[in-house]
Amino acid sequence: MTAERYVFPHKHLLGIEPLSPQDITALLDQARAFEEVCERPSIKIVPALRKKLVVNLFFENSTRTRNSFEIAEKRLSAEIINFDADTSSLNKGETLIDTAMNLEAMHPDLIVMRHSAPGAHALLARHMKASIVNAGDGAHEHPTQALLDAYTLRKHFGKLEGLRVAIVGDIRNSRVVRSNLWLLTRMGAKVTLVGPPTLVPQEMKATWPSIDISHDFDAVIPKQDAIMMLRAQFERGTGAYIPGQGEYSRFFQLNPARMQRAKKDVVVLHPGPINRGLEITSEVADGPRNLILDQVTNGVPVRMAVLYLLSHPHGEQVP
Amino acid sequence: MPEAQGPCPMDPGQMDAALKRLAADLMARLRSEEEVVLLGIRSRGLPLAERLAILLRAATGAQVPVGSLDITLYRDDLTEMVGSPIVRPTEIPFTLKERTVVLVDDVLYTGRTVRAALDALLDHGRPHRVMLLVLADRSGRELPIQADLAGLRVEIPPGHRVAVKLKEIDGEDSVTVEAC
Fold first, then answer.
1. Is residue B145 in some structural domain?
2. What is the assigned CATH class of domain A3-140+299-311?
3. A166 near A227, Cβ under 8 Å?
4. CA triplet A132, A133, A134: central angle to 5 degrees?
5. What is the pLDDT of residues B116-156, one digit of tens each?
6. Where does the source fall among the domains of life (chain B) (predicted)?
7. How far, CA to CA in Å, does B86 sit from each of A70, A303, A309, B6, B174?
């Protein structure tokens, strides 16, 4: 047998920004191996994280991301503690650092955290020995979502380089879009951000000079290989940036009429949950070109790959 | 079966002869009603399993299914290793139920790889029986595991290793004993 070794040079996955193309490729390649585990007809569990303790620390509501991580952890045979912020001592005034110190006393190996404050993960990483996985921090990054999006696209098209991807909708409030911009541009995809001027900050061009920005969805559609729709996040104040939902839908909804303008082999992605009838219609969300449920399916092997690569002692570590 | 000594226990011709002998010995061990499949342990077990399948087909006319098994995630030292061993997909595109599975590997040494392979195998299904076929069976067992069929059995001192090269991976066929 061969025990060819790859040293993932990061202790934490705080975002896509610190990852090199080689790191991203390694994560996606490992996910392919874990997909085989998930597709087995019999036992879908491997002992790779046996004896490792994973704490799921969710300070924000999440169903699919939390479930996806938990399934991934169980498929790797990890010990799991689910920390529910609603019933924690945080409600009694405990700080995040206090929570971290208490968790540290349990000697976890990995902590999967979702938090509304950008940078909360970096703070935790400075105070704990465990590897930290960012499961979403405010409007900053959601790295595993970007990785599963990339995995889904690479699986469908066989590559990321050269793909034309439009990311459409509530760009301003999306952590998914930031992670995807780091990942897709770094891997050679051509990204166009589409949305009303109020929801697409022009300054994003300064961070990602290769992207295009457009406010004309109909003009952009025919050139795209993939259209990634974003959820309009009214809970984050999106309503204040648009005249109304009707007008938003009129110009930026992906519907059958707009799909007629797209390439016949275009694919549609959405990180979920979907506002049906607002940013996307049910005909498209459930239609033959959608990869939305593939994204959910692919989330598990991608998260298995992340947990696996972070769970080994590293050589020289970089954050 | 030759007891190997010296630095070069198998040249390409000897490897070819050993594989033919292994295929013949395997056929002799199988009952007529047994449905056999070959599972090569990645990485060098796979091309060996594929070569054996060709030899079995030439001898019997029967197509023997070949799959591959990656045991990385089942290693008993996985959580202690620095860096992550690369995991490659296991490919078993057939049922194992009621089949006779022949695990194929290049070298049997401590037995830990075979233990991991048995764990991995049983997660994919419950075969009728499992046999172990290796090209080279060397001394140094750490677990009570033995090969049913071996192309070569070799006693070598500690601090040495049996290095198998295969055309499919290394561009040449050879088995050598090297100091490590």
1. yes
2. alpha beta
3. yes
4. 115
5. 999 999 999 999 999 999 999 999 999 999 999 999 999 98
6. Bacteria
7. 23, 16, 9, 33, 25
Asked if domains A3-140+299-311 and A143-296 share a fold, the reply is yes
CATH number of the domain to which B41 belongs:
3.40.50.2020
**From the annotation, which residues of A make up the binding site?**
64-65, 92, 114, 142, 145, 175, 231, 272-273
Q: Which two tokens stand for residue B100?
A: 């006779």
Q: Is B122 helix (H, G, I), strand (E, B) or coil?
A: helix
Contacts of B87 in chain A (CB under 8 A): 30, 33-34, 308
The reply to whether residue A5 touches residue B81, judged by beta carbons under 8 angstroms, is yes
pLDDT at residue number A92 = 61
Domain annotation covers residue B80 = no
Please indicate whether, in this complex, the C-beta atoms of A1 and B113 are within 8 angstroms of each other: yes
Pick the CATH number of A143-296 from 3.40.190.10, 3.30.2350.10, 3.40.50.10420, 3.40.50.1370: 3.40.50.1370
- Portion 298-317 of A in contact with B at CB < 8 A: 308-309, 311-315
Phi then psi dihedrals of residue B153, to 5 deg: -115, 125
Cross-chain Cβ contact A1/B86 below 8 Å: no
In angstroms, the separation between the Cα of residue A312 and the nearest Cα of chain B is 6
Q: Is A47 on the interface with B (CB under 8 A)?
A: yes
